[in-house]
Amino acid sequence: MAPKNLPLSVAAIVLGAAAFLACADEEASPGPEASAESVLATEAAGVPEPADNPANPSKVELGRLLFWDPILAGDRDIACGSCHDPARGYSDGRKVSIGTGGAAVPRNALTVLDAAWNGWTALTPAPAADAAPMFWDNRAQSLETQAAGPILAANEMRGKNHTEATIFPEVVERLRAIPGYVDRFDAAFPNRPSEEAGDRIAKETIVRAIAAFERTLVSRPSYERWLAGDESALSAAAQRGVADFRRSGCSACHSGPMLSDFALHRFQRGGEAIRTPSLRNVLRTAPYMHDGRAATIGDVLNIYRRVDRDADPAFEGLRVPGGRGGDASDLQAFLAAASDGTYDETIPTEVPSGLPVGGRIRAE
Ligand code: HEC
Ligand code: HEC
After folding, report:
1. CA-to-CA distance for 124 and 257, rounded, in angstroms?
2. In the CATH scheme, what is the homologous superfamily, with its name and number, of domain 220-337?
């Protein structure tokens, strides 16, 4: 893991730690689950990246073009950006996603924002970038591994005209035939030994460029600044919301800088084991839950009112903020403060294939 950007100066980190220690006894202070140590790790480590995929500006820009270019889809009709739209918090606004040719995808689209920090909990530093857990069930590790997933999946991007064995060779061949891509892969991977420029275009470099771009899609919400010790970063209502959230037992799972333990939990005995989603940017990414069954935060709270408390030990003592039918406006203020970071929303105006940017399938 190599630090890539250092958001705060060392002086600010020290001040943050001092502020943290000074207010550790107050109810709405950052609190024990964001230990001074883990907060400092958050701030100091920047965005983790794998040793074999250091970012450079050409690689990031190539990754952005690939993210938006339907050339990666078997039938050239869909791109990563079709389901991960900046206007929808890099999600798609749908209950569950729609893939190539209108195929059903049985899952709600997770945001790509801050996924570079997946695995970071209150108790552990951010995992090495090649171990960051991905998907609702943590089934892939690292952004690089994840990026191959939708290209290989028949219902997301591959379609019916190619197989898992043939899709990457097909995509590589397409990219090699586009001079704009040959030049950009050369610039992005200058140290990769190759007899001819086209050799730099391979499955491995495609997913590396996409992952390097995704590592730039990070947001730093007010909630994180508050965890780092800036008391003024949260309104009084948001601070009450944090306290209520913790008292209610929500933070048994949604804790730390990402508001997730990145562990799998069951809502019913014998039910599916699903990862606690990060609540960063949550207000930008409705509908909610892995199957999109909750349209609003109110619907989510209703699910917790009915949850099978014996399904998971972490539900012991759970209460629902706002009470039965009560006003959850403090909770909303807190979730807003976890969702207010700014991030790169740039969509390229054209892609080197000349195909429509983002393909024919668009976020809702
Ligand atoms: C058809 C819509 C669709 C397309 C196209 C798509 N995704 Fe996704 N993405 C999803 C859905 C749905 C999930 C959650 C799937 C799951 O967990 O099983 C997801 C999950 C992810 C995650 C995991 C985030 C996390 O926190 O675990 C990343 C990263 C991601 N997608 C990036 C990409 C990239 C890169 C591409 C293009 C190569 C892409 N997606 C194409 C719908 C899509
Ligand atoms: C036992 C661990 C656990 C506890 C306790 C818990 N959650 Fe969750 N939370 C999860 C999991 C797992 C999911 C995803 C469930 C699914 O997709 O079916 C989730 C989903 C959510 C979502 C939807 C996020 C999204 O992007 O779809 C919100 C909002 C949320 N929880 C808020 C809360 C609140 C508020 C509380 C306290 C009342 C709480 N959670 C308590 C584990 C937990």
Report:
1. 10
2. Cytochrome c-like domain (1.10.760.10)
At 107-149, the pLDDT tens digits run 999 999 999 999 988 777 778 899 999 999 999 999 999 999 9
Q: Whose CA is nearest to atom 40 of ligand 1?
A: 80
Q: In b/e form, how buried is each residue of 43-61, taking b as 16+ CB within 10 angstroms? A: bebbbbbbeebebeebbbb
**43-57, 101-115, 346-360: least confident range:** 43-57
Tens digits of residue pLDDT in 155-195: 999 999 999 999 999 999 999 999 999 999 999 999 887 66
Return the closest-CA partner of residue 343 out of 169, 91, 168: 91
For the chain, the structural domain boundaries read 57-214, 220-337
**Pocket mutation for ligand 2, best pick of 118, 297, 300, 310 (most atoms within 8 Å of C-beta):** 300
Same topology between domain 57-214 and domain 220-337: yes
280 C-beta closer than 6 A to ligand 2: no
Site to substitute for ligand 1 among 64, 75, 146, 157, most atoms within 8 A of C-beta: 146
Please give the CATH number for the structural domain made up of 57-214.
1.10.760.10
